[in-house]
Amino acid sequence: MTQDQQQSDAPRGIFITFEGGEGAGKTTHIRFLSEALKARGREVVRLREPGGTDIGERLRGVLLDPRNTALSDEAELLLYEAARAQIVAEVVKPALERGAVVLCDRFTDSTVAYQGYGRGLSRAFIDEANAFACQGVAPDRTILLVAGGDARTGLARATHRGADRLERAGEEFHAQVNDAFLEIARACPERVRVVESDRRKSRTAAAVFAELSDLFPWMEGLAEADPAFFGRLDAKRSKVRA
């Protein structure tokens, strides 16, 4: 059997994206989900946008560098789409074709929220640019993490070590972004699942797994069957504080 035949016989992977405003806790829950899936024998590819490739990481540096105050909104959008086109072609599509689970920190919904609602750029153009960059790839499920408090609270959580160019866009901008994510979730309830992230990490993680249980049946009822599985997240936090 040829390599091409083996790839065609492999089941398609699963593409899960995580979205949310600043300080929503995406990194923690992507890492925890990744570890759980790997323990079950799945290949997991963890990515972030913009980034995930050598070219994408260089574009990320341009986009988030606070010194690049002259970067226009239009150029910003196109740089995000360039990074996305690269990560889809170089990493996401091949990973899905070989049956991997791809977990991505931000994807097209962020572009709609930040550049569409936040920057006020054309939604129709953004939809076309997203479709062009994605080459037919779309998330099977999106977890929208919603933190408590207003935009100022989220920004404070995200910027305690310094703010990047997007984080410096101001509270009004980020409030519009947060509202946009909720509007996207209302428009796409089958794909986008809202999970509150302003509570104990164990409860948030359990809620994330519950929203993925149709894709991974072993997650069904896991919080009740094995409370310690999620409780270790809170234990790690307690050790750090101690």
UniProtKB/TrEMBL annotation:
SUPFAM superfamilies: P-loop containing nucleoside triphosphate hydrolases. Pfam families: Thymidylate_kin. Its EC number is 2.7.4.9. Residues 18-199 form the Thymidylate kinase-like domain. It is an enzyme of class 2 (transferase). ATP binds at G20, G21, E22, G23, A24, G25, K26, T27. GO terms for cellular component: cytosol. Keywords: ATP-binding, Kinase, Nucleotide biosynthesis, Nucleotide-binding, Transferase. The lineage of its organism: Bacteria, Bacillati, Actinomycetota, Coriobacteriia, Eggerthellales. One of its GO terms (biological process) is dTDP biosynthetic process. NCBIfam families: DTMP_kinase. This is Thymidylate kinase. InterPro entries: P-loop_NTPase (IPR027417), Thymidylate_kin-like_dom (IPR039430), Thymidylate_kin_CS (IPR018095), Thymidylate_kinase (IPR018094). Belongs to the thymidylate kinase family. One of its GO terms (molecular function) is ATP binding. Phosphorylation of dTMP to form dTDP in both de novo and salvage pathways of dTTP synthesis.
